[in-house]
Amino acid sequence: MSNQALEKALNALFEQSRLVFFDDENGKNRAEFDELELPDIEKIITDNNEFTVKYRVLRQEREKKFLIYRKDGAPKDENNWLLDLQMSYPVYKADEISLIASDLNLSPERFYTTVKAFPGFFANRDLRNRLKRAVDPSAETEDTLRLKMLAILSPLKKADDFEQVVMSLIKGQLELEKSSDYAAEDIATKNFGIDLSLYAYFLQKMKAEYGYEKKASVALPIKDFVFALFHDHLAKGDAGN
């Protein structure tokens, strides 16, 4: 992650708050913290000096902005001299998940759960870069972000809604079966296989949107889904006669 993206994420927090905690993981990101250039913001490192830090930021320099670095994150509540401040001001967690979210120009606090849920996707730098180009930081939601992830892994690469993703997979499955070296492969399993959690999310969406539920014995869910659509269509036609 670039320091520019990190600085942007921290500046966004400082727009809403005078104090921000920078919680590291065993000092892994200390070098990045040291290299930060944040105008009009002073960096403080806690090292058994929490009472001094609290006195300074609350009494001595009440108007100044501070970024408070904690090497090992927040201690247990009973040992946390800064707990009251921590409960009142934002905490930036400098772990891998937060750093990825920041690099995508997304709020780590809002999108932490989503990024954490799909490790296979976000471990791939090329996929992250493609998603970064598609992200709209001002309007992104968890649902729109997940849709963009599915779209990137689909033959379509970009989609406005889930139906477009599904239709591209159906078309892709037909083209796959036309190939001379086709070996009973499912395009959804193939494309989403890089992240089993994302594949599971795709199947959940299929159930929610179309009522299709993949059985454990089904090896070709896209093909099975198409058959299910035809079956339902025929059944409705028979019922209408």
Could you characterize the architecture of this molecule?
By secondary structure, this protein is of the alpha/beta class. It is about 55% helix and about 10% strand. The chain has 13 helices and four strands. It has helices at about 5-15, 30-35, 50-60, 85-90, 95-105, 110-115, 120, 125-135, 140-155, 160-180, 185-190, 195-210, 220-240; strands at about 20-25, 40-45, 65-70, 90-95. Strands 2-3-1-4 form a four-stranded parallel beta sheet, covered by helices on one side. Helix 5 crosses helix 6 and helix 8 crosses helix 9. It is elongated.
Question: What fraction, in percent, of the residue positions are helical?
Answer: 55-70%
The description of the largest β-sheet is: 4 strands, parallel
Strand arrangement, largest sheet?
2-3-1-4
Radius of gyration over all CA atoms, rounded: 24 Å
Low-confidence parts, pLDDT < 50 over ≥5 residues? none
Q: Which outline best applies? A: elongated
Distance between the termini: 62 Å
**Beta fraction:** 5-15%
SS elements, strand count? 4
Helix-strand sequence: HEHEHEHEHHHHHHHHH
How many helices does DSSP assign? 13
Structural class: alpha/beta
**Average pLDDT rating:** 90
